[in-house]
From TrEMBL:
PROSITE patterns: ACT. It comes from Pontiella agarivorans. This is Homoserine dehydrogenase. The lineage of its organism: Bacteria, Pseudomonadati, Kiritimatiellota, Kiritimatiellia, Kiritimatiellales. GO terms for molecular function: homoserine dehydrogenase activity. It comes from the Bacteria. It is an enzyme of class 1 (oxidoreductase). InterPro entries: ACT-like_dom_sf (IPR045865), ACT_dom (IPR002912), Asp/hSer_DH_NAD-bd (IPR005106), HDH (IPR016204), HDH_cat (IPR001342), NAD(P)-bd_dom_sf (IPR036291). Keywords: Amino-acid biosynthesis, Methionine biosynthesis, Oxidoreductase, Threonine biosynthesis. CDD domains: ACT_HSDH-Hom.
Amino acid sequence: MKEIKIGILGFGTVGAGVVEGIQKNGSLMAERTGITPVVAKIADLDITTDRGITVDDGVLTTDAMAVIADPEIDLIVELVGGTSIARTFTLEALKQGKPVITANKALLADYGAEIYKTARDNNTGIYYEAAVGGGIPILRSQRAGLIGNQIESIYGILNGTCNYILTRMEREGLPFDEILADAQALGYAETPPDLDIDGIDTAHKAVVLASMAYGAPVPMSACPTSGIRGLSASEIENADELGYQIKLLAIIKDNNGEVELSVEPALVPKEHMIASVADSFNAVFVKGDIVDDTMYYGRGAGRLPTGSAVIGDIMEAASDTLNRVGPPVSVTMMLQKTELKYCSADNIEKRCYIRLCLEDKPGAMAKVMNIFGEHNISIASVVQKERHESGRAPVVMLTQKARESEFVGAMNAIQALDVSCAEPIRMRLEDFG
Ligand SMILES: NC(=O)C1=CN([C@@H]2O[C@H](COP(=O)(O)OP(=O)(O)OC[C@H]3O[C@@H](n4cnc5c(N)ncnc54)[C@H](O)[C@@H]3O)[C@@H](O)[C@H]2O)C=CC1
Ligand SMILES: N[C@@H](CC=O)C(=O)O
Ligand code: NA
């Protein structure tokens, strides 16, 4: 039986989950692989807080750099988070030829190009399954099971916090802030949670998925991003009445050789499988040119599910190290091309949900319809609610597909109308057609 000595940096939610998982199932992993995982060192700035886990004397330290430099340590697990000290730790370990396992999608999204190249140049690996879809082995599926496919499209619910908030707003009608506090207490949210609710965490994961799908590090600037901050109960109710649910979606497509990428809240049909993905669960739908449609589902956040993904990477990195495999597929797939072409956001075609507030006056609707006509936007359905006592009436519309630039033009023109009494609300409607 061979042994692999692991140095963990960051003993927070995920770090503690990794140690708990190895304590529980380490012997099972050893029986299955012939490699015994040994947590030799854990570095954290705080080594006094009780994580509900007992470790041997001498394992805990506050000095992460000493763990990286320790010749006894075979591989490094980076779980401190953020993009500053985590980048320093990761690059230093790779330069010493040690494989790094990380759950840090922000780090990969911002510094992926530098990190993958450093791994390759030092003949070692960076492993990052936990960075996308938490416990779901989505990247492993992409780089192993789907390796023979051109990826046509990926749709993902990739943020446990947002999906948890949307689910409870819809089911329990609770206020946004109250549910966010629960998501934080459950260990799902980032620090700060703005990364979750503004869609940035989803975008971090989307660019990692897109990089692997299309073969080069994709910059965050290529991913137009909006989140669920300020989403009102009215949108959830209106969507429900029309047969839809609202989900924060990552959308990645090969659009005639150009990468189409966005993160945005979207109405999805209630009968589609994606609508049944609730709470902190994530789901990723990948369509390949050979395999056709595939779907992956599981816990997207939390101590043990994320720990499970990190542990899978530890065992793969251990096997690669012991077998002296050079840079693994998780590195080479990210460095196939030097540059990718991106679809301009203006040219993306989509359907939309639109809520207007109109003065209830004769001709108001005709003015609005004229504007849609001028912008080549065809309306699929319109619901005008009873007018309020104020003389104003909310109007809810679903459109057919049109170009983003036409939607922007139409919204500006409608807002400028004398009969328009509030800024129009617009969201994507994704029917997967
Ligand atoms: N919590 C979750 O469900 C998931 C988290 N992740 C990612 O995993 C990483 C870790 O997240 P959490 O465990 O939730 O964060 P956390 O905040 O619970 O843990 C981070 C730990 O790192 C320690 N730390 C900070 N600076 C340090 C330094 N210089 N040296 C040593 N220790 C240091 C902190 O004291 C803390 O205990 C992040 O990149 C996060 O985005 C990924 C998937 C899911
Ligand atoms: N904050 C993230 C944690 C996992 O990546 C989430 O809520 O999904
Ligand atoms: Na994963």
